[in-house]
Amino acid sequence: MKISANGIMLQAQDQGDGDVALVFLHYWGGTAQSWRLLIDTLPDELRTIALDARGWGGSDRPADGYDIATMADDVAAAISSLGLQRYVLVGHSMGGKVAQLLASRRPSGLAGLVLVAPSPAQGKHLSAAEREGMAAAYTTGQSAGWTVDNVLTGRALPSHLREQVISGSLAGSPAARESWPARAIVEDVSANLADIEVPVLVIGGELDKVDSVEMLRSVVLPSLPEARLSVVAGAGHLLPLEAPEEVGALLADFVAGLSATSATPTPEDIPGAFDEAFNRGDIDGVLSLFHPQAVMRMTDGVTVAGGAASLREHLRHLLAARPVLHNRIRRVLVSGDTALLLLDWEIRVPVQGRGDEEGQGTATQVAERCGDGNWRLRIANPLGIA
């Protein structure tokens, strides 16, 4: 099917029907078809939409617009045209860089972000020789085949898939093939990555020579507050083709986790959801209720934890004591996308040989409405004004 988006027509493969749609963005040299094997492994109840980027596959082939911002605009416009209410961006390599920029804009309806061997949003600085090599990669069948065999894959592809990759790469428009190594790959679009407020899964290939696991750990993960990394053993850069079942399973688990996360469509929903996750010792459930840039004053009255990593570490120690918490709402004030909650709380902590220790107090919390419609804690102060 064709979708009108940002002044051009994009080719899309749209199938399935579900509450959450997965929007797939392919790598430089690929097409929507590169996701086909992976999509076929996913549960039937998931809706999947694989887009051909401008200049690739069946999409229009304009002379310009191959910078990351314009390609992100294309995807945003396609999502709007399709009327998606809740979706996950799934970007591979170049598509991963586009997905990072779009997610950093905090678009309405975004529920999650999956980056498959993503090119870093900070850009990659290529030597002249590297740039020349990439520019020549998709000029002939021989050069494309060599690139597939020696650069892109860690596992040999079956001959029919290898030919599919080669033909798709050669069929890209001259502008699309030239623009990525010449300009788009070096663009830095990382300025607002800290604004991404949804769960993020990064998937890397153990043998990836393009966007290595080492680079993902040192560059990509530290820039994404909610990110976790999974590595596929024995696979290279073309993960959707080399390891469709492994990547598909990781993606399905990620989406299932989103469905299990407590919905907090009003500020008043936060205390109950927090109690449920806290009392079952579910640290991921607790953290899902915090904004990526949240800060929390800990119960010692001195320590202030900020960011997902610091919050996880402090909350892990707190939950290890297996406490039982109950929050009761005293007052909620809402102004636009910001809310102030005043809560009375009681807590019981089992102490070996002494029964339960009990405590109580009043908390002040500031919550913010996020792009997916859920409210999350931005400032948590369990000691109130004390």
Please describe what this structure looks like.
The protein is built from 13 helices and 14 strands. The longest helix has 17 residues. The chain folds into two domains: 259 residues, Rossmann fold (3-Layer(aba) Sandwich); 113 residues, Roll (Nuclear Transport Factor 2, Chain: A), CATH 3.10.450.50. The model has no long low-confidence stretch (mean pLDDT 93). The N and C termini lie far apart (60 Å). 34% of the residues lie in helices and 27% in strands. It is an alpha/beta fold.
- Enumerate the strands of the largest sheet in spatial order, edge to edge or round the barrel: 1-2-4-3-5-6-7-8
CATH superfamily placement of the largest domain: Alpha/Beta hydrolase fold, catalytic domain
Radius of gyration: 23 Å
| Structural class estimated from helices and strands | alpha/beta
Helix count equals: 13
Coarse shape: elongated
Number of domains: 2
The CATH topology name of the largest domain reads Rossmann fold
Unreliable stretches (pLDDT < 50, length at least 5) are none
Please tell me the CATH architecture of the largest domain by its name: 3-Layer(aba) Sandwich
N-to-C series of helices and strands: EEEHEHEHEHHHHEHEHHHHEEHEEEE
Helix content: 25-40%
Largest sheet: 8 strands, mixed
What value does the average pLDDT take? 93
